[in-house]
Each structure stands twice: as structure tokens, then as C-alpha cells.
Amino acid sequence: MSIPDIPASGATPGPRGLTSLGKKLDSWGEIASYLGREVRTVQRWERTEGLPVHRHEHKKKSTVYAYAGELDAWIKQRQPKDDPEADDAFAREQELSGTDSPVDIVNPSVMPPAPGPAPNPDEPAPPVGKRVVIALFALGILCAASLGVYRWLQPADSTQEKVRIAVLPFTYASGDSKPDYITSGLTDLIRTKLGQLDPPHLGVIAATSSRIVAGQPVPEIGRVLNVKYLLEGGVQRAGEQVRIDVQLIQVSDQTHLWSESFTRELSDVLQVESDVSAAIARQILATLPVPSDPQPKALVQPGTVHAATPEIVNSRHAFLQGEFAWGSRGDLRSSIVFFEQAIHDDPNYAEAYAGLAAATAILGQVPNDGLPPGDAKPKAKEAAQRALQLNPKLAEAHAVLGNVAMSYDWDLATAERELRRAIELAPNDPTPHEWYCHLLIVEGHPSEALAEAHRALDLDPVSPLFHDVVAETYYFGRSYDAAIEEAQQVVKLHPGDLSAQFWLGSAYREKKMYPQAIETFQHARQASGDNPAMLMAYGHTQALAGNAAEARAAIQKLQQLAATRFVPNLYPAAIHVGLGEKDEAFRLLNRAFEEKIDRLVYLNVDPMADPLRSDPRFAQLMAKVGFH
Known about the structure:
The structure is a single chain. The protein is an alpha/beta fold and 628 residues long. Among the domains are: 15-110; 157-293, 3-Layer(aba) Sandwich (Rossmann fold), CATH 3.40.50; 512-628. Helices cover 55% and strands 9% of the residues. It has helices spanning 28-35, 39-49, 68-77, 84-97, 128-131, 133-147, 183-197, 207-213, 218-225, 269-287, 310-328, 332-345, 350-363, 373-390, 395-407, 412-425, 430-442, 446-459, 464-476, 480-493, 498-510, 514-528, 532-544, 548-562, 570-579, 582-595, 616-625; strands spanning 18-19, 22-25, 54-55, 64-67, 163-167, 171-174, 202-204, 229-238, 241-250, 255-265. The strands form 2 sheets. Strands 5, 6, 7, 8, 9 and 10 form a 6-stranded mixed sheet that branches. It has a 4-stranded antiparallel sheet with strand order 1-2-4-3. α19 packs parallel to α21 and α21 (498-510) packs antiparallel against α22.
């Protein structure tokens, strides 16, 4: 369907490329990412089903654009065709948009209802546009990688002595309308088991990057992820039987080193996942040039569920949805709801407790500010401790306890112990490396922190999240030019990455590039609907630039927001620092201390606090936080 290059009916211009039809998506990559599909799928939808795509007629045919609002409306009206791959895509989008679908990947709503009422979120989940924002960046990064444009996509600290492998998302085909509740779980379980086999010698790429590059040519995947081997496969269902085909590919010459098919009954789907993933892990360990371990780790860890009752299957579905939402950190509330649903259906699901703990801990921290710290901390800590009761070797739970110890308790010794334990248990998981990086920042070790950030990035090379962490680490290390360069790469690919914008604007500010910083923070304010952290950064920068009226207006806006949501006292305090009003700043900082705001532990190294360091009250505040 070719649409002339004119505004759609009723479209009116909005700020920075927005119209009444929503955000403008300027490439096949952005369109596909918004819909959560591969480019070839949305191109087929345009050809065969009338997906509303516009074209610039004065340019080459491949120059296209679309409006998010039109895509949302089309998705809601679309009737899925007899096309497993396309219908699988439709199911994912229908689930994200909250509508019913005859086919779904991991949607608990299509399974038999669980006993008793399911947990409800405290607040409505964000709209679909916000839910897929990280996916938009991801596809932009993938397109850049395909062109070989950006240096920053290459892993910064390659570990050539390791054998590195990526497990690509398995394909799914079925002759019925039943949901695919094996493919996502099987891929995830294989990745987990491989990551546990021999971490010193076998590196496994994280799920986010593996999903982003899926569908690209094998050599390109190998280059972008810096891997020598790919594991790919497919799942076919026929009634109550499932066939799983798997092949191991050597990237250098694209030869198939090993392939195998497994046929199983679906009477116990989770046992199928466990058996097949363990068999694949054993075969790969025997095939790849990895030294044999005289004491190999168990392939099934405690806490893994096996009995496939309807409640357990429901729980598995909810957990996978929670993992998907958690992976981008862009939809924490929804991930919490899914993890709570998983626990509701299976009270002994250790991984679901760990997921709930992680999402809750991060929701209560800057810049999310979705929960007061006093509410977030006990809930996160209790869930993590319950996870460890069920599985003492669950790395994710140890990592959360480390995060909570640092961010809420300001207990750096406990944080280090728990985070090191998490890394020991799961060295191929990038999240513990990310959080250990933050601990090293707080402790004043910028070089070590940067190395840890790059370890996380090496495990998830095209994840915008970990590029943001690298930019943040440069900022706290006062390497502002490097922070600007790193953050600009993400922002150029998609301007909606709020974290990248925050660190870009912060680095501009510290270089006294106030116009650039103000423009960056203003854009972030508009894109986020006045996120309090972005409003704080904007007001602080306006104050430093000598625009006191704008700074005071930002303080007033924060006060208005505080009437309807949690706004840390740290935020107006920062603006008063910019205005040179130290008495008011310290008054609010002491309130922030009572609130247990996580970012207080960063003040000892944050350049924003430099104007306060010579004041004795700053040393007193830092002593209360735990720095002597």
C-alpha cells in the first residue's frame, strides 16, 4: 500500500516530529521495531494487508515513514492470516496493546483462569507507545550495525580467550490457534543453562542483543555480537506433540557443526523444556572447543519448576511476559504485575520472586521514582529473600540484595558481597555487572567502574541500556567528552532514550555548554511528560545559566507534580544548589536523607554537588549516609 507523501487526514504538527497521530517513524527499521517484528514481516503486511506506510515520492522507493497512531489503529482492526510468523507477531502486538487475540506467544489471559483474583497494578500500565520505546532504539542500533557505521557497537573489552555463542530466538509454527508457550521459555532456558556450564571459557550473549540481531545474516550477527557460534532452532506443534529442531552454526564459514531434532509429548511442557535444553547444553559442551570441567555444574538448578499443571503453565507465561517487560527497564510496572501473577499461580517460583524484587527495587530509584523508597525497599528485599529460600544459588536474587544494600541501606560492604556472589554464580548475566559498576562509581573507583560497565556491554553488545551505563560512568569519572560521544550515539539513533538524554545533557552542563544542555533536557521533558528527574536537570541547568525565573518555575512544577506522585526532595534541592541557595538546598537534602533517596549515596562523587563540598554541612550529610 503506497501512500502519497502528504500529511494524513486530521494530522496536525506537534513538537519535534510528533502529530496528532503520534510519533513519526522514519524507516522500515523503526516501523518494524514499533510493531515488535522483523522488517520483512512489516513489508509483507504492507504489500498484502495494507499496513499504512507512507513514502517520500521524491526520493528512492525505500524511503518510508509511518505514524504510530495509524499503526495502532491498523493493528487493532487487523484479522490475522494463516501465517504462523505473521500471526505470532500479531499476537505479540495484541498482548502489548491490551486487546484479545486468537493466537498469543506468552499471554496468560488465553489460558484457563487461575484460581482466585489476580493481582492488579496500583496504577494503569503505560500506553503501548511507551512500552516499545526501547525496542525502537534497539532496531535503530541494529540498522546502524548492519551498515557498519558505529564504532560503539563493537564490544569494548573482547574476551578472545572465551568461546562466545549467541542463542537466537527460536521460530514457531503450529497448525492450530493454541498459544506458543514453549518457544520463548525454551530459548531462555537454553541460554541460562549454557551460561551456567563453564563461564570462564564459554560466554553467552544476553537475550536483548540476541533478539535485536535475529534475522540478520550470519556474518553480520557474528561481527556485531563478536561471537564465533550461533545456536538457532524452531518449534513445531501438532496436537499434543512438539518437534524441536536445533542447529549449531560456525560463523566463520556458516557450516552446521551439529543439528538434532527432539520430538516430545506436551503432557508436561516444562519437563520438555528442561530435558531438551539440558540435552542441547551437553551436546554443545561436547562440540565446542571448551575445556572439560572435572566437576561439571548441574544442568537443572534448584527452584526450577517441572510439573505442568494449568497453574504452573499460567505462571510460566506470566513470568516470560515479566522478563520481556523488565529487559528494557521501560515498563517496570507491567513487569511487576506479571511477576506477581506468576507468584500467584505458583507460590514456589523462585525466579518470579527474583524478578519481582528487581523490578520493585528499580522502580523505587531515581529517575523512575515510581514508588517511595520506604515502600519499594521492604517489598524488594522480602521478594529477594524469598527467592533465595527457594533457591540459594539464584544469582538474580543476590544481585537485588546487593542493589538494595547500596541504594536503600547505603551499606556498601554488604552490597559488594552480594554483587560479587551474583557475578560468581552468573558471570554471563550483564545485570550484576551493571550494578557492581554503580557500586564502584559510588566508592570512587571510576576506572574499575568503567571496566565493569564494559563487561556488561560485552555480554549484551547492542543493548542501549548498557551503552547508557557506559555514558553514565564516564560522567561520574568526569570524562565529559567521552560521555557526550557515547550518549550521542544512542540519541542519534533514537531521541526517545531518556537515560541517554539525561547523561548527554549532564555532560553538556558540566562543560558549561548550557544551551546544548537546556535543549537536551527540554526535549527529554517533552518526550517524558515532565518526568521529575528531567525537570530537575532542566531547572538546575537553567539556574547555572543565570535564568533564575526558569529555574524557579521548574521548582514550582515539581511541587505541583508532588501533589499527585512521589517526587524526591533531592530534585528541588538540586535546583537550589544551582541558584546558590545553600541553606534551602541543605534543608531539602536532609529531607531526602529521611526519605532514603538512593542518589544521596552518589553525592560524594556527583559533580552537581561540587558547590556544596566546602560547606561543613556537606561532610555532615555524607557522614550520615556512611562516608567518613
